[in-house]
């Protein structure tokens, strides 16, 4: 096999908020990608508006830095070595992006927080890297945190690596365990742009004021791309993008042969057929920009144009000697939501050019399937509703939020689990959940998880006033859990989870004790009515906002639904009255985000999503029809 020494392909993988994107930012700055006068924002790769708002990476992205330091000459590449860097999401709900990113590279840098240590997503991304037989570089980040415990985190990460390697080996994957024992460790403070091979004291920055040790570790431990000389072209499509001028772009990793602009190649489709196409453009990534080139060879990660409907997982091949690569494997979805058209009485009344029809909604969901390999869209018994399955509720909530911002109006059902029938028994997905909370909330969280059928696996106290609790819990029990966790711990609790396979159905789980305050008629919310009713619960709507029959206008203080007339006006009399006093005594309404609304909704409720508003409502709006349906459900449950 021949080797291309002027390229390294590496993915930065970690748990959410451990500093991946910040580290990539520092690598770009120290590779002189930006000019001295250019103002560079933090987390420059998080270009998506939702990513910036939420502070997390949602989409896998790639960039390229040119290393021209002293090690380049030592490796016989005096003109420099191109390091293609893939920044992957750290949240388990976006695991499909991680799997795509890992399929493009020859090694990974595993980033672990010097205080938090390995968390569930660390296990997930590390296992995927080991299954792909990729070499691993361990980078301990945020060594300057006041609560850093560097030695313990290195030990925990090494134990995790060896434990996962043992599991993967038992599954029949041949790993070089000796090389894993010689794991290179780099200590970083990504925000400062420092890295060193020497372990600093807890809470201090590394003793080296640049990232040269990290570049050194990547060049020495991540193998250069190998290819077979004279082999026909093989290029795997791992991502999709778009250009205003070129149309759809396919992001490809070339394994063998070379791509040349203007030539005809074959595209091996997902179904197995091969279609010829003319390659109209090749774009190589340089920093954050894409530059047109005439050809690209083995090991290159480039964007190509020429196929209007290119799909992830397909392979560009030689039409005379096609040798397609295997499709990208993505874990099965565990959570589903029903996406349907908006049938509320005020649909389409809040703005112009809203996208309302079932055809528009279905086209948008089909478009999402092109670039998102981790979701499935399943038809339902309704022509205007579809079941969308994904890894977790956050991933599906992000899809709904993106559609809302694109002008769509829709209703989204409460998250449900995707069950399986195994040996004649109903099984449901389980999660390994890690929760970090201050010590005083340990009892509260234990009770909260017990109510959700959670089983405690371990508990550890690092002596910093915080406790780490690990549970195995049904995925159903985690729907709406984040909101309950933040309420129970006054916003201090941190939870993360990872799929733990399937287990027999755990029984009924009651996650919400309070009922809903339901409007029994249409109109406008009256300040007078809200003042009279606010002792019965907390409102979601503002005075004078439109409401309709079946809309959830608040959360009741007691269990069970409460039908109310929130539109009642004060009767006119011949006595003067200062109506301003009414407004002053109203409690401010609860303003819920889309994720919080989905967490709040009960089984018979859904969320109305429009570009201007988010409302919780009953699926059956007519109150008489809802009572009949509810009575039938009670009879069925009693008979079963």
TrEMBL record:
Family: Belongs to the TRAFAC class translation factor GTPase superfamily. Classic translation factor GTPase family. BipA subfamily.
Key words of the record: Cytoplasm, GTP-binding, Hydrolase, Nucleotide-binding, Ribosome biogenesis, RNA-binding, rRNA-binding, tRNA-binding
Matching PANTHER family: TR-TYPE G DOMAIN-CONTAINING PROTEIN, TRANSLATION ELONGATION FACTOR-RELATED
GO biological processes: ribosomal large subunit assembly
UniProt subcellular location: Cytoplasm
Encoding gene (name): typA
Matching Pfam families: BipA_C, EF-G_D2, EFG_C, GTP_EFTU
Assembly and oligomerization: Monomer.
SUPFAM superfamilies: EF-G C-terminal domain-like (SSF54980), P-loop containing nucleoside triphosphate hydrolases (SSF52540), Translation proteins (SSF50447)
Protein name (database record): Large ribosomal subunit assembly factor BipA
Catalytic activity: GTP + H2O = GDP + phosphate + H(+)
Primary role: A 50S ribosomal subunit assembly protein with GTPase activity, required for 50S subunit assembly at low temperatures, may also play a role in translation. Binds GTP and analogs. Binds the 70S ribosome between the 30S and 50S subunits, in a similar position as ribosome-bound EF-G; it contacts a number of ribosomal proteins, both rRNAs and the A-site tRNA.
Domain spans labelled Tr-type G: 5-226
Enzyme Commission no: 3.6.5.-
């Amino acid at each position: 096999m021949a080797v291309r020494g002027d390229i390294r392909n590496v993915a930065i993988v970690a748990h959410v908020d451990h500093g991946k994107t910040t580290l990539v930012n520092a690598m770009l700055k120290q590779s002189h990608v930006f000019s001295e006068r250019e103002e560079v924002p933090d987390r420059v790769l998080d270009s998506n508006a939702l990513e910036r708002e939420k502070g997390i990476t949602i989409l896998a992205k790639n960039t390229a830095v040119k290393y021209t330091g002293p090690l380049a000459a030592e490796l016989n590449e005096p003109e420099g070595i191109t390091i293609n860097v893939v920044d992957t999401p750290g949240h388990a709900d976006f695991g499909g992006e991680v799997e795509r990113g890992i399929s493009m590279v020859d090694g990974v840098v595993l980033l672990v927080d010097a205080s938090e240590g390995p968390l569930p997503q660390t296990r997930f991304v590390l296992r995927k890297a080991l299954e792909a037989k990729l070499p691993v570089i361990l980078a301990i980040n945020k060594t300057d945190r006041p609560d850093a415990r560097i030695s313990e985190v290195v030990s925990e990460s090494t134990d995790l690596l060896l434990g996962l390697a043992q599991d993967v080996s038992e599954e029949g994957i041949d790993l070089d365990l000796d090389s894993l024992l010689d794991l290179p460790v780099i200590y970083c403070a990504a925000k400062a742009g420092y890295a060193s091979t020497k372990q600093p004291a807890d809470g201090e920055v590394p003793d080296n004021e640049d990232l040269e040790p990290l570049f050194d570790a990547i060049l020495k431990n991540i193998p250069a791309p190998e290819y077979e000389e004279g082999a026909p072209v093989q290029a795997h499509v791992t991502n999709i993008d778009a250009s205003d001028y070129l149309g759809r772009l396919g992001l490809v990793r070339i394994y063998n042969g070379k791509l040349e602009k203007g030539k005809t190649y074959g595209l091996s489709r997902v179904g197995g057929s091969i279609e010829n196409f003319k390659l109209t453009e090749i774009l190589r990534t340089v920093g954050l920009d894409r530059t047109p080139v005439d050809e690209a060879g083995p090991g290159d990660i480039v964007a190509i144009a020429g196929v209007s409907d290119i799909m992830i997982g397909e392979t560009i091949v030689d039409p005379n000697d096609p040798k397609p690569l295997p499709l990208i494997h993505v874990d099965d979805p565990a959570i589903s939501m029903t996406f349907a058209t908006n049938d509320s009485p005020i649909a389409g009344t809040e703005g112009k050019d809203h996208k309302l029809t079932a055809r528009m909604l279905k086209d948008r969901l089909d478009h999402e399937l092109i670039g998102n390999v981790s979701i499935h869209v399943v038809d339902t018994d309704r022509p205007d509703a579809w079941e969308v399955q994904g890894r977790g509720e956050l991933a599906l909530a992000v899809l709904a939020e993106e559609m809302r911002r694109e002008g769509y109006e829709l209703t989204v059902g409460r998250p449900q689990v995707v069950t399986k029938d195994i040996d004649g028994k109903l099984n449901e997905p389980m999660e390994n959940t890690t929760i970090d909370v201050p010590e005083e909330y340990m009892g509260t969280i234990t009770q909260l998880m017990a109510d959700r059928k959670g089983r405690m696996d371990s508990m550890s106290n690092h002596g910093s006033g915080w406790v780490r609790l690990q549970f195995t819990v049904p995925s159903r029990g985690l729907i709406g859990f984040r909101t309950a966790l933040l309420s129970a711990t006054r916003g201090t609790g941190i939870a993360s989870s990872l799929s733990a396979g399937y287990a027999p159905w755990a029984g009924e789980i009651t996650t919400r004790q309070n009922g809903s305050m339901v409007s029994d008629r249409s109109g406008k919310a009256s300040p007078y009515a809200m003042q009279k009713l606010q002792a019965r619960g907390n409102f979601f709507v503002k005075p004078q906002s439109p409401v309709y029959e079946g809309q959830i206008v608040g959360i009741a203080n007691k269990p069970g639904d409460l039908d109310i007339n929130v539109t009642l006006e004060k009767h006119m009399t011949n006595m003067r009255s200062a109506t301003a006093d009414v407004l002053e005594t109203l409690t401010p309404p609860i303003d819920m985000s889309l994720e919080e609304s989905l967490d709040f909704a009960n089984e018979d409720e859904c969320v109305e999503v429009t570009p201007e508003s988010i409302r919780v409502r009953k699926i059956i709006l007519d109150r008489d029809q809802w009572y009949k349906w509810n009575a039938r459900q009670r009879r069925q449950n009693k008979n079963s």
